[in-house]
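Before drawing any conclusions, I looked closely at one protein, both as residues and as discrete backbone shape codes, quoted below without any editing:
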Amino acid sequence: MLLSGGLDSATVLAIARDQGYTCHALSFDYGQRHRAELTAAQRVATDLGAITHRVAHLDIAAWGGFSGSALIDPIDVPKDRDSQQMTAQIPVTYVPARNTIFLSYALALAEISGASDIFIGVNAVDYSGYPDCRPGYIAAFEAMANLATKAAVQLPSPAPLRIQAPLIDLGKTQIIQRGLELGVDYALTHSCYDPSPDVLHPLGCQPCGRCDACLLRMRAFAELDLADPLLG
């Protein structure tokens, strides 16, 4: 289970648990400016009963080809954008090949542990223009994964390894509805791309309320006549 600590991945963890899976969570510290999500991921993993929670450390900022993302470099995070602006082009918060890197780590861990399912919280409806959140990408990675493993070559009838993206066709409002049905406490999550330090906040920072991630979730809660528990 790829667990960022955000709204989507928390919901997917709840879905996987509800379906009877034994869940092992994997998060990544890759030099992101919103590292508070790692604390949120630990809180979510504990609250939703993940058996283990690992954090992999990646020095993406030191890999020359990965500059240019506002999540890593000192570049302004876009603020106060409407839905049309969010999806007009690939945003500056996109980290090149991030989901491919994350899924590759998860694939290795799945192969080592004998797991046959990898869960990821991508969705294509409110995806803010990210190319690695589309159904075609998930299907292509799954096809590759079933060619790339030892089991695929050596076992006579290996069980297919599945990349499960149960939110792929859902909007944020539907995601929150499903999570609430499953008991997700969204006050434990963190979504903001550009939080400000706040020693009084449980995560040590305060969401900006203006970046794409904050606005998408705030609008979705509002559509349900609810306040975002992180923003009030």
User: Anything to note?
Assistant: DSSP finds eight helices and six strands in the chain. The chain has a mean pLDDT of 90. The domain at 7-223 is CATH 3.40.50.620 (Rossmann fold). The radius of gyration is 17 Å.
